[in-house]
Amino acid sequence: MKMYVGNLSWDATSQDITELFAQYGEVTDVHLPTDRDSGRPRGFAFVTMGSKSAMVDAIKALDGTEFLGRDLRVNEARPREDRGGGGGGRGGYRN
């Protein structure tokens, strides 16, 4: 019941997103990632709805619609891929 919301305006707040999606059902969580260095929103969010039907309704209604000057991309979030570990630590000096 988690959706990916892309192409968000950097001016969008969690409250703005909650209000937009609440028209289609209960919003249980909004995660608005920010850039580590600047603290500015990264232009996407994850929205969790209270039911599958609310999520489907929100996707149908909001995907491709304009919000704060940008056309939203809304779809069901995919599970996070395992990107593997950090680089290993092998290498270095060899004889």
Notes on the protein architecture:
It is a single chain. With 95 residues, this protein is an alpha+beta fold. The protein has a domain at 1-8 and 15-33 and 54-72. 20% of the residues lie in helices and 25% in strands. The protein is built from 2 helices and 6 strands; from the N terminus they run E-H-E-E-H-E-E-E. Strands 2-3-1-6 form a 4-stranded antiparallel sheet, covered by helices on one side. Strand 4 and strand 5 (70-71) form a beta hairpin.
On the 0 to 100 scale, the average pLDDT is 89
Q: Based on CA inertia axes, which overall geometry fits?
A: globular
Category by helix and strand content: alpha+beta
- The whole-angstrom Rg is 18 Å
Helical content stands at: 10-25%
User: Biggest sheet: strands side by side, in what order?
Assistant: 2-3-1-6
What's the total count of β strands?
A: 6
Order of helices and strands: EHEEHEEE
Q: What summary fits the major beta sheet?
A: 4 strands, antiparallel
- Distance separating the two termini: 55 Å
Given as residue ranges, the uncertain stretches (5+ residues, pLDDT < 50) are: none
The number of helices is 2
Strand content: 25-35%
By oligomeric state, this entry counts as: single chain
Pfam families: RRM_1
Keywords: RNA-binding
Protein name: RNA-binding protein
InterPro entries: Nucleotide-bd_a/b_plait_sf, RBD_domain_sf, RRM2_NsCP33-like, RRM_dom, SLIRP/GR-RBP-like
